[in-house]
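Reopening this one. Same input as before:
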Amino acid sequence: CTACIARRPKSDWPYLARGVAFGKLKQFEKAHQDIARSLELKPESYHAYLNRGVISVYEKKYDDAQADFERASQLKPDQAAPFINLAATGLERATELFNDSQKPNASVLAAAELQQANVALTSAIERSPQQAAIYSFRGRIRMAQNNLTAALADFEKANKLEITPLRRAENFQQIATHQSFFAQHCRGYFS
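Same output, byte for byte:
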């Protein structure tokens, strides 16, 4: 990437590519510098905002990540990726809150994050309704929300959409696990 930058210093893509590489190497300051330069050259770069958001999640800078994913969704409102990443950010926040017993109202805040993740994934599904992984992800969020019926429906939808045998087997395992869980938790409620 550095050689590309030397040959094309006014192009945004080499800076973005190098910034992503630095992010994967966990050299976050360098990653942010390169992505900032990419955005100077192309201020409306969907990919720069999306990738900077991912790097911010790695750094646990969730507010920054959320702002970047929201900006990416404004730049390309028909794309599912920003909404999937918003949901992943919410799940990260919720997980940290659930694990932080010292924080007042942690469980209430975590539940709100999960609800926002659920809404973001519903938006992603509206944009990409044939993507099985989104249904599976939303099913896991709904399980965490204890919305078992909706979770099961998402896992079943993911299974119907999945075309690879390995993924179908994984989905069947999730469905079986969650049907068993659902049956155990609902025993006696309907009899």
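So the earlier flakiness isn't reproducible anymore. For the record, Residues 106-127 form the longest helix (22 residues).
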